[in-house]
Amino acid sequence: MHNEIEKVLISEEEIQEKCKEMGAELSKEYEGHFPLAIGVLKGATPFMTDLLKRMETHLEMDFMDVSSYHGGMESSGEVKIVKDLDTKVEGRDVLIIEDIIDSGRTLAYLVDLFKYRKANSIKIVTLLDKPTGRSADIKADTVGFEVPDEFVVGYGLDYQEKYRNLPYVGVLKPEVYGG
Ligand code: PRP
Ligand code: MN
Ligand code: MG
């Protein structure tokens, strides 16, 4: 698997160090609160587990799976719930955890949904941000790293469901795409 990677963009050490930093920051922000940490399946799971280990407040974990419809070349922007939360959002301090924000549509949908469900507060933490991809008006409260306009895999991010288990974030060799 590792020999299919052209270059490592963010190393395992850099990611772990960032998780520590972000965890410390979030521990302060949520001190005395009991946030509801929501991981967006599947990509957010490695980051979620490493980040939450660094948080020193009590918290509740839940997961949501959504999918966006892709009609032809462009995503339609429509998002569908594949797996909903088990937890009630009303009155809760919601912390949405993502691996990457690209167009921003996934998060725009989730933020609207949690507002509609009367969350007390909503924060977004993402490991990666690709600002060049943005079409929805969405911004994370906490960003780990900005990534260039390249297709990245690893640490949750997949290409055809593979590479999520890489401990780093990297770029695939072009031949892997069948090029
Ligand atoms: C990817 C990624 C984010 C989303 C970002 O998930 O993990 O959740 O896309 O894209 P956006 O900002 O353009 O909405 P995907 O839908 O591929 O599901 P996955 O996490 O299961 O891979
Ligand atoms: Mn995802
Ligand atoms: Mg994906």
From TrEMBL:
Pfam families the record matches: Pribosyltran (PF00156)
UniProt entry tagged with the keyword Transcription: no
Keyword Lipoprotein found: no
Domain Phosphoribosyltransferase span(s) in chain numbering: 13-160
Catalytic activity: GMP + diphosphate = guanine + 5-phospho-alpha-D-ribose 1-diphosphate; IMP + diphosphate = hypoxanthine + 5-phospho-alpha-D-ribose 1-diphosphate
Domain of life: Bacteria
Example GO BP: hypoxanthine metabolic process
Cofactor(s) required, per the database record: Mg(2+)
Primary subcellular site in the record, as a coarse category: cytoplasm
Location of the protein in the cell: Cytoplasm
UniProt keyword annotations, A-Z: Cytoplasm, Glycosyltransferase, Magnesium, Metal-binding, Nucleotide-binding, Purine salvage, Transferase
Enzyme Commission number(s) of this protein: 2.4.2.8
Family: Belongs to the purine/pyrimidine phosphoribosyltransferase family.
Record's function text: Purine salvage pathway enzyme that catalyzes the transfer of the ribosyl-5-phosphate group from 5-phospho-alpha-D-ribose 1-diphosphate (PRPP) to the N9 position of the 6-oxopurines hypoxanthine and guanine to form the corresponding ribonucleotides IMP (inosine 5'-monophosphate) and GMP (guanosine 5'-monophosphate), with the release of PPi.
Protein name (database record): Hypoxanthine phosphoribosyltransferase
Organism: Halobacillus karajensis
Lineage of origin: Bacteria, Bacillati, Bacillota, Bacilli, Bacillales
